[in-house]
Design brief:
Elements lengths: L3 H5 L6 H8 L4 H18 L3 E4 L1 E6 L25 H13 L4 E6 L5 H17 L5 E5 L5 H10 L3 E3 L7 H6 L9 H14 L2 E4 L2 E2 L6 H14 L3 E3 L1 E2 L18 H18 L4 E3 L2 H6 L3 H7 L4 E2 L6 H4 L15 H14 L3 E3 L7 H17 L1
Parallel strand pairs: 1-11, 1-12, 2-3, 3-4, 4-5, 5-6, 6-8, 7-9, 8-10
Helix pairs in contact: 2-9, 3-10, 4-5, 5-6, 6-8
This protein binds S-adenosylmethionine and iron/sulfur cluster.
């Protein structure tokens, strides 16, 4: 069997290599992997991190994903939808704090009224920001026409996690019906790319029934799809969800945390130029969790700018951090923490995925050569 250093010296990691790296057991080997990923981050995207302001503007959702605390079937949740005016106030706050973009996230709704509301909202945001201000959407599965309409209105990035790239696992963590269909999710991801977005996906790590082989396949899936941005983090349980009954199958939290760091690190090595988010779920397990994610190769942070009064109604999992803080308190503490690990938050760049920029340049050259 190859040592970690031997595996890390290879030009390209095979599935067997990825499984070996995910399965590392000693602290020394784990640290070797993390250090290697950080050196790749340093040389390819730099020791700098980008901020995206997250606005969880509605917890209304028609779906029933087995893992999610705001699933439609959870009747304990107080449903809300933040008005456009309040959202614009958050955008103003983001601009005053030198953010170069925001992420609009919500439960999944798809109807003509919702589509139009988002189109109008994007237009309003563009009116109060400069045209380059980046709008990322995370609004679930939509038709190609809807993705295109929102792209044409001015949104530049879209996040849709595949959640689990293995169809068998996908079916175990979702109801099996037309609303929760693996092939539809995959098609949506392709349509997001086709519509022109910088495309983001990701998976949950440490799910019941998930094997190390599945996780290796997740990383290979992300690479094969040519994804530009990734948000992946630990699966965290919520008592009011159907998946909770499998709690005794889960890895202990510290192991789930370390496995998540290894997933980030391996992906940074496999795809040096993509953007990788260090997720809030990491911070739920450990206070310095997001900073540890940055040290493992992630380069994006998504501080939650949702007004404080709504935060307790967007609990995807238990122990979500900072739900009793307003955005400005979160920001102060974040800037200090990033400094503490010797990194810098970049305020004057849009921080587009370099992978996306390269992809666009290659495509333009191909069109030029082949007509
Ligand atoms: N509704 C949209 C969707 O599903 O794509 C966007 C919002 S959804 C709340 C955003 C992400 O939350 C999902 O893609 C899922 O990976 C994550 N999530 C939900 N429940 C979770 C849990 N229990 N642990 C960790 N992540 C979770
Ligand atoms: Fe709804 Fe998204 Fe939660 Fe699924 S993960 S229940 S689509 S909010």
């Amino acid at each position: 069997m190859n040592t970690v250093s031997e595996i890390l010296s290879k030009q390209e990691l095979s599935k067997a290599d990825i499984i070996s790296l995910l399965s590392l057991t000693t602290k020394e080997d784990h640290d070797t992997l993390i250090k290697k990923a950080y050196s790749v981050k340093e040389s390819c995207v730099g020791k700098k991190d980008y901020l995206r302001g997250l606005i969880e503007f509605s917890n209304q959702c028609k779906k029933n994903c087995f893992y999610c605390g705001i699933r439609a079937g959870n009747t304990k949740v107080n449903r809300y939808s933040i008005s456009d005016e309040e959202i614009i106030n958050v955008v103003d706050f983001a601009q005053k704090n030198k953010f170069t973009g925001i992420v609009l996230q919500s439960g999944e709704q798809n109807n003509i009224g919702f589509t139009k509301r988002i189109t109008d909202l994007i237009t309003k945001i563009k009116e109060v920001t400069n045209p380059e201000f980046r709008i990322t959407l995370s609004l679930g599965e939509q038709s190609f026409e809807t993705y295109k309409e929102w792209f044409d209105a001015g949104a530049q990035r879209y996040l849709l996690r595949i959640e689990a790239s293995n169809e068998t696992l996908y079916k175990k963590i979702h109801p099996v019906n037309d609303l929760h269909n693996y092939k539809t999710r995959l098609k949506c991801l392709e349509n997001i790319q086709k519509a022109g977005y910088q495309t983001g996906t990701g998976v949950m790590i440490g799910l019941p029934f998930q094997t190390t082989e599945y996780l290796a396949d997740d990383l290979l899936f992300i690479k094969k799809m040519g994804i530009d941005m990734v948000g992946m983090g630990p699966y965290l349980e919520h008592a009011d969800t159907p998946l909770y009954k499998y709690n005794d199958m889960l890895l202990p939290l510290p192991e789930r945390f370390n496995l998540s760091l290894r997933m980030i690190a391996i992906l940074r090595i496999m795809m040096p130029f993509i953007n990788i988010a260090s997720t809030t779920a990491l911070q739920s397990i450990m206070k310095m969790g997001r900073e540890r994610g940055l040290k493992a190769g992630a380069n994006v942070l998504m501080p939650n700018l949702t007004p404080g009064k709504y935060k307790s109604n967007y609990l995807l999992y238990e122990n979500k951090p900072c739900i009793d803080e307003e955005a400005d308190e979160c920001l102060d503490c974040l800037a200090n923490r990033v400094k503490m690990i010797g990194e810098e938050i970049v305020y004057n760049e849009y921080g587009d995925s370099e992978h996306f920029t390269k992809r666009k340049t290659i495509r333009k050259t191909e069109i030029f050569i082949h007509g």
